[in-house]
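Quick one, probably user error.
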């Protein structure tokens, strides 16, 4: 079984081919850098770029794997959540390709794709497990009881983790996307350099997250303390944001140490987060699986993989043309499809 994955929910135009052993046969990814000068993704620009890039990208991966469309078992495409116009481009393309080739379409939930990407590091990961999904738009701690049985343990009350990094980077004029910009700047801080203090959110006894207080505190503190460099602020912000993220995760994990933890989504590429969770897993004598760094941020392979899993579990798409869902809580997957 080989599935083509198409991802156009935001500013990555990405396609890939994945087989039923979860091997990536070919892939192509273009991160649209034209958004950088605006400090955020411009939806209309993103849609146009997807339209220009998609056709060639798909031809490229098929050629690369020496396959013809009829050899595919499915065309997996992100139908939500994401930017409406950007999602439409991928969905319309997938529809046309499916009609022309006779290959069935597989609608994919973007976060479900992030959730299962840890399979790229270990194919034997089995339910139940705990999943921390941290992207530009979402922050979720989920207990994965089984495929499509997703119990939300905690979510953000305000900004998403990645959004917090993006906003902080904009404030510190470090560039876009903010996560890597903040992490790189933090890296330039010298050992023993004095760093400003920023607050760490703690919403216990709930397992929810919050990042807006940290964002406001950063803004106030930067204005009041011009003596600190942007690098120093970046280092303090990274620590405070990652610790705010870890608080509820650690509390739930310590109470349920038998559950392995997986992380996925753009922020899961953060080295400090990965290091802290690796150390905790050792202490708790449990297992931790981090999605490979190159598959944390949006990519086509995770969409193809989600398509393979969907086929393996016998889900069949009944609608063509497919509908897009710009807002699409992952908890609804259980209710709609099972
Ligand atoms: O999953 P993703 O590629 O797109 C969405 O689905 O939103 O995540 C993008 C987010 C951005 O907010 C970006 O700043 C953040 O992931 N990010 C990081 C790092 N790399 C990307 N955040 C913290 N540290 C990183 N190394
Ligand atoms: Zn994503």
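Nope, works fine. Designed sequence:
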């Amino acid at each position: 079984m080989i599935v083509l994955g198409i991802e156009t929910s935001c500013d990555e135009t990405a396609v890939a081919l994945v087989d039923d052993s979860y091997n990536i046969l070919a892939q192509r990814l273009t991160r649209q850098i034209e958004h950088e000068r605006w400090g955020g993704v411009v939806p209309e620009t993103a849609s146009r770029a997807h339209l220009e890039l998609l056709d060639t990208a798909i031809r490229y991966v098929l050629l690369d794997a020496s396959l013809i469309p009829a050899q595919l078992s499915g065309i997996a495409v992100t139908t939500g959540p994401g930017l409406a116009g950007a999602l439409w481009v991928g969905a319309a393309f997938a529809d046309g390709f499916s009609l022309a080739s006779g290959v069935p379409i597989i609608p994919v939930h973007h976060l479900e794709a992030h959730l299962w990407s840890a399979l790229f590091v270990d194919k034997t990961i089995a339910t139940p497990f705990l999943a921390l999904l941290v992207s530009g738009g979402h922050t979720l701690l989920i207990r994965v009881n089984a495929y499509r049985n997703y119990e939300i343990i905690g979510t953000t009350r305000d900004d998403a983790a990645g959004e917090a990094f993006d906003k902080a980077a904009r404030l510190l004029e470090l560039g876009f996307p903010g996560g890597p910009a903040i992490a790189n700047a933090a890296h330039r801080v010298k050992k023993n350099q004095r760093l400003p203090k920023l607050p760490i959110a703690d919403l216990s006894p709930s397992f929810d997250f919050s990042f807006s207080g940290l964002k406001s505190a950063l803004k106030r503190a930067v204005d009041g303390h011009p003596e600190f460099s942007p690098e120093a602020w970046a280092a303090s912000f990274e620590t405070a944001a990652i610790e705010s993220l870890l608080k509820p995760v650690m509390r739930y994990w310590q109470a349920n140490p038998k559950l392995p933890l997986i992380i996925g989504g753009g922020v899961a590429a953060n080295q400090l987060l990965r290091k802290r969770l690796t150390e905790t897993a050792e202490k708790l004598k449990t297992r931790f699986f981090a999605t490979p760094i190159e598959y944390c941020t949006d990519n086509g392979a995770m969409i193809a993989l989600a398509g393979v899993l969907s086929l393996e579990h016998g889900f069949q798409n009944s609608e063509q043309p497919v509908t897009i869902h710009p807002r699409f809580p992952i908890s609804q997957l259980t209710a709609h499809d099972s």
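The mean pLDDT is 96.
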